[in-house]
Amino acid sequence: MIPHTPTRLIRALRRDGLDAAQTPWGWRARRLDAHPDTPDAEVLLPAALPLEGAALGQLAALADARHPHGGRVTHARASPDFHPGSGGVPIGATIRVEGQLLPQAVGGDINCGMRLHALDLDASALRGQRDAFVARMRGDYFAGARDLPQRGEAMSALFAEGIPGWAAATRRAGALGRLRDADLNQIEAECERVHFEAMLAGHPRWAPDHIDWDQPIIRDDGLATIGGGNHFVEIQLIEEIFDRDAAWRWGLREGQATLMIHSGSRLVGKAIGRRFHVRARARWPQDHKHPASGLFPIIDPADIADYLEAEATAANYGYLNRALLAELARISLREIHGDLQAPLIYDLPHNITQPDGDGWIARKGACPAEADQPVIIPGSMGAASYLMRGLGAAGHLRSASHGAGRATGRFHMHRREAEALGLEGIDCVTPRQTRLIEEAPAAYKPIQPVIESQIEAGVVAPVARLKPLLTFKA
Questions:
Q1: Which residues are registered as beta bridge partners of 390?
Q2: Which of 457, 443, 382 is nearest to 408 (CA)?
Q3: Which of 16, 83, 165, 396 has the fewest CB atoms within 10 Å, i.e. is most exposed?
Q4: CB 27 within 8 A of CB 43
Q5: How far apart are CA 40 and CA 244, in angstroms?
Q6: How many beta carbons lie within 10 A of that of residue 383, not counting itself?
Q7: Mean pLDDT by 10 residues, the chain (474 residues)
Q8: pTM summary value
Q9: CB under 8 Å to 295, separation ≥6 — which residues?
Q10: What is the secondary structure of 266-333 as a DSSP string?
Q11: 3-state secondary structure of 195
Q12: Nearest-CA neighbor of 230 among 389, 125, 350?
């Protein structure tokens, strides 16, 4: 991470092969050896946050990624939470491409995303039954009490048609296990509040090998699991409403509890992401050197069609994973507090490709922010999260940050003194104490400048601020 001393920083970046300049809203850069028509890599970054040179280098390389036989990146943007990512693509990056796709620009955590439910409860009601709720959720999320067997017909429909297909097939064939207590009608009806309506054109043929189609009942260990890293399930409290009109339309009020979920497609996305990275590398023309960036676009129409279908398959799984994480919580809340609808506010993806005119937009660690669309930007488990309203800012590829962004790597967090972790007053339930250290509030950038810079840039408008009350980390 490089301090904000522009002249010295620009010289350092030039030694690393970057032509960089500070702008009124952040930074722009391009590789010195970039193709003449390569777009500038642009970062929305407030002065309060330091520029990460490694991440800027990755973004500039991403802007210059192209196949020798055609295709190009037309725009490359990064949100204020951006930081270096594995595989050569920074977290917080959004690109627009024409004539090619880059599977690495989405990565393996396909349709990692956010889900937010309103709860008809206040903080005192939740705190009064905190232990009973934690006992139930600890069993469902961590201790193997989760019982969600799927009939083969329902699993196939999930991969092909998303949540609507899965719900219809589950009703036809009969729900099993905990799904007998689930409200399938509500889950299906809520798809209108899910980005892409929780239904993309996938196919079961892209399912990973651990799905045993020869069995009439499939027990998949991935559904309704949080996952590692920065994924979580969290009970929050709406501290402040900024946009009362939007809050009224979305069914929110101050003092109300909410349920926020951050998870993705688990092993399904990981398997598909790896498969297409290997395929893209194998398809690279033998008479051309491998790119120094390690980024391998695909241009063959059949490869592009296959990738989009496979990505949709994983995305469908990710949507249901979040929906079932929420449904398990709703079931337990109903058992404790009586009839409780806990409606969905919105569910949106972070890592996904979407068509855009004659090209595509690909996001990795960034979320869509279309005009008037709910945008969910979480903080750490010790900082506020924000519900925003997208403004459809074309200059930022209609994209917003997916969080505050990491400031310190997980390995380095273990070197910090306990009092420097920021864990005082945190209520986090996790089976791994190492996770508590790695995901402590001190690991993340401050959320406030990340939010304020996007408001000032016209990317999003604030609707509500949410305070964490209880966090589940796997």
A1: 460
A2: 443
A3: 16
A4: yes
A5: 38
A6: 17
A7: 68 96 96 97 95 96 97 98 94 98 97 97 94 97 92 97 98 96 96 98 96 93 94 98 98 97 98 97 97 97 98 98 98 95 96 98 98 98 97 98 93 88 94 92 96 98 98 96
A8: 0.96
A9: 61, 62, 65, 88, 89, 102, 104
A10: HHHHHHHHHHHHHHHHHHS-TTSPPPTT----B--HHHHHHHHHHHHHHHHHHHHHHHHHHHHHHHHH
A11: helix
A12: 350
Q: Which two tokens stand for residue 143?
A: 């201790």
The answer to whether 1 touches 52, Cβ cutoff 8 Å, is yes
Which residues 6+ apart lie within 8 Å of 400 measured at CB? 79, 366, 367, 368, 369, 375, 377, 388, 390, 454, 459, 460
Task: Report the DSSP beta bridge partners of residue 75.
Answer: 96
Q: What is the DSSP string of 51-94?
A: B-HHHHHHHHHHHT--BTTB-EEEEEEEEEEEE--GGG--EEEE
User: Within 13 Å of residue 92, how many CA atoms lie on the same side as its CB?
Assistant: 24
Backbone φ and ψ of 130, nearest 5°: -55, -50
From residue 212, how far is each of 102, 201, 205, 468 by CA, in Å?
30, 22, 12, 39
The pair of structure tokens assigned to 191 is 């798809």
Length in residues, the chain? 474
User: Do 178 and 328 touch, CB atoms closer than 8 A?
Assistant: yes
Q: Can you tell me which residue has the tokens 């270096």?
A: 84
Residue 391 neighbours by CB under 8 Å, 6+ apart: 369, 371, 458, 459, 460, 461
Tokens of 278: 């290997």
Q: At 253, list the tokens.
A: 């009020």
- Residue 190 has which token pair? 């809520």
Instruction: Measure the CA–CA gap between 110 and 350, rounded to whole angstroms.
Output: 8
* Cα dist from 133 to 116, 259, 261, 332, whole Å: 18, 13, 16, 7
Q: ∠ CA(438), CA(109), CA(232), 5° rounding?
A: 45
Dist CA 249 CA 160 (whole Å): 32
Residue 163 phi/psi, 5-degree rounding, is -60, -45
**Contact at 8 Å (CB) between 405 and 82?**
yes
Instruction: List pLDDT tens digits, range 91-125.
Output: 999 999 999 999 999 999 999 999 999 999 999 99
- Transcribe 332-381 into DSSP letters: HHHHHHSS----EEEEEESSEEEEETTEEEEEESEEE--TT-EEEE---T
Angle between helices 301-337 and 130-141 (to 10 degrees): 150
pLDDT in the model for residue 5: 61
Angle at 161 between CA 156 and CA 163, to 5 degrees: 95
Cα 102 from Cα 66, distance rounded (Å): 9
